[in-house]
Amino acid sequence: MEILNKLFELQDKEYAEFQSKLTPTVSKEKFIGVRVPEVRKLAKQYIKDEEAKLFLKVLPHEYYDENMLHGLLISEIKDFDICIKEVDKFLPYVDNWAVCDIMSPKIFNKNK
Is 24 helix (H, G, I), strand (E, B) or coil? Predict the structure, then answer.
């Protein structure tokens, strides 16, 4: 999958080590080490791409960084009903505070 390859291209091993200390419930091997601003850029880049639609269907993900991207992609969905469905599908796989914290769908501001 192109998205996973892109995540590994952006890998920062020192950052992965740092993140693993902040998120002790996730094993160190599950961190690629992509900095959050880079993951945000990827989400904005891929949200309208067919690759993102395929990526959102593949659950569970292997890596923490994939889950971060997944949460950010969901946050970019502009259709309320689709967003709710995607949140419902993803929530069982949210296993740490960081992934939970990064997910903030913009459409929720209009639909409280």
Answer: coil
- Give the number of domains in the chain: 1
Range of the domain at 87: 2-109
The span from the CA of 110 to the CA of 112, in Å, is 6
**Cβ neighbours for 15, distance < 8 A, ≥ 6 positions apart:** 33, 34, 35
* 40 Cβ contact list (under 8 Å, min separation 6): 72
What residues contact residue 51 under an 8 Å CB cut-off, 6+ apart? 1, 2, 3
Three-class DSSP category at 50: helix
Parts of the chain with a pLDDT under 70: 1
